[in-house]
Amino acid sequence: MMFDPQQRKENRSARIMMALFRMSQAIKKVTQVESDEQGLSPVQIQALLFALYTRSDVASIGNFAKAIGTTHVTAVKIINGLVTKGQMTKVPKKEDRRVTLLQLTAKGKEAASSLEKWGYTLEEALHSIPDDILEDFEIGLSSVITAMQRRGHLVVAEPCLDCIHFLPNTGDSTTPHYCSFMEKYLTHEASLKECPEHISSGNN
């Protein structure tokens, strides 16, 4: 058990688990402080960034709930708070009106653009660590994230490139790329946005 200091002495996994737990606690603390500076909660900031960086046709309340690991009901409450602030709107998806898509208003885009430095405390901490150590750390973290993703504990959204569903340069000049999962052609700009259905081809 990671909370038992005696077990941590003999168990590498327990030491790593405790380190990750302590990191999560620290990240929660610093992001709360930074969020307070913006007059928003951390989850509201995540919602704004989700709507800003996620491809518009998959920026749904359901996918947002999966992205932050919460229930659909809780996600709706978070979004409704931003709707009340005039920063976000909810629009039924044309292809399936049961799905609600999220769109930033002009006020929401302004708020999201001001979040460029959100997370700066963690970034400053990383800058103090040598590159060779960070390189190994990144490889290790990626392995943990992949393992958690395969077990269904988190969603890793990435742009289309390197996704098994992505077929580049198969369309026309307006929508040059094709997504075999969504069965639709995409503009190049859309392919640069994050998609929660991304599955890495393993080429990178």
UniProtKB/TrEMBL annotation:
SUPFAM superfamilies the record matches: Winged helix' DNA-binding domain (SSF46785)
Keywords tagged on the record: DNA-binding
Residue span(s) of domain HTH marR-type: 13-146
Keyword Transferase: no
Alphabetized PROSITE patterns for the sequence: HTH_MARR_2
Protein name from the UniProt record: MarR family transcriptional regulator
